Amino acid sequence: MYLNLSKAGWLTTALTLFACVLSQSVNAQEVRSAMAGGSGAQANGRPAPMDASAIISPELEKILQTWEQKSGQVNRMKGEFTRIEYDQIFTTAKCAVGKYWFENPDKGRMDFMPDPNANATPARQVTRGDKTYSVQAAEAHSWICDGEQILAIDLVKKEYNRIRIPEQYRGTKISDGPLPFLFGMQAAKIKERYILELGSMHNPQQIIHIVAYPKMQAEQREYRVAEVLLDPVAYLPKAIQLQDPTGNKQTVYVFTKHDQVTLPFLPPPGPFRPHMIGYKVILDEESTSSQDREAKKEGIMIR
């Protein structure tokens, strides 16, 4: 029972980042160091569990229930983050810095800007595992969901892609999109959509490490595994790592600042309706009956 956005592969990475939007303040250097060597199952070469119906441990079950309860208590947040995309084929590490805004239940914005320190002279390098990567600045772009549409904006070319959200999927049902914990994680849906296990870094007194393998083919085409680091007090994500289906690219997100906002974002409608004068639309589509049929062939039901 999920909204099919699988045709829009450009959405997945940006959407996934909102799994981390509801973070508490974190020690950024600690998380960077933890992720730098490859934090989880796939990075260590362990394959995904073969049994899709594997029983979740009581400890993980309790974590999922608490995660759902506490993440649902956050109404508005804004903050800052960093993102690094490691490409093992070209041995590059593309770095971005950015800001985010979140408003429950279905509004979010993330602005990605080139890391100003990435293009230093002489060229910087970073070692991760047994590889050394050349550091590069990422491209400037934004991702925005205002509850009615999702925009992926190229700030350099002044172009954007748009998916209009059908009315029946708006509001709290936005969580039926590519990842169920984007705008208020629900434990039952995560268990339906993922094979879950506790990762190698898991220490309930210091950090909670969840590894999630997607069951749905549409998501498997976008990434092989997602790993989330949770604060053990707030039960909200500190960082996330994605590995692409080939195993040759990992994307790591770390949040460096988080502010919970009490009053509505000003001026209305806040940061979720940008001025698009001078921008050209490249992709503009909505979930259609043909997409619904395709989703059903893949085993994905549309609510």
Commentary on this structure:
The chain is α+β, with helices and mostly antiparallel strands and 303 residues long. 16% of the residues lie in helices and 34% in strands. The chain is built from six helices and 14 strands. Strands 1, 2, 3, 4, 5, 6, 7, 8, 9, 10, 11, 12, 13 and 14 form a 14-stranded mixed beta sheet that branches. The longest helix has 14 residues, at 58-71. The radius of gyration is 19 Å and the shape is globular. It starts with 11 loop residues before the first helix and ends in a 6-residue tail after the last helix.
Low-confidence stretches: 1-36, 38-45, 177-183, 289-303
The percentage of residues in β strands lies in 25-35%
Give the radius of gyration. Answer: 19 Å
Helix content: 10-25%
What gross morphology would you assign?
A: globular
* Average pLDDT reading: 76
Instruction: Report on the biggest sheet.
Output: 14 strands, mixed
- Write the H/E string, N to C: HHHEEEEEEEEHEEHEEEEH
Spatial separation of the terminal alpha carbons: 5 Å
| Structural class designation | alpha+beta
Number of strands: 14
Contiguous helical run count: 6
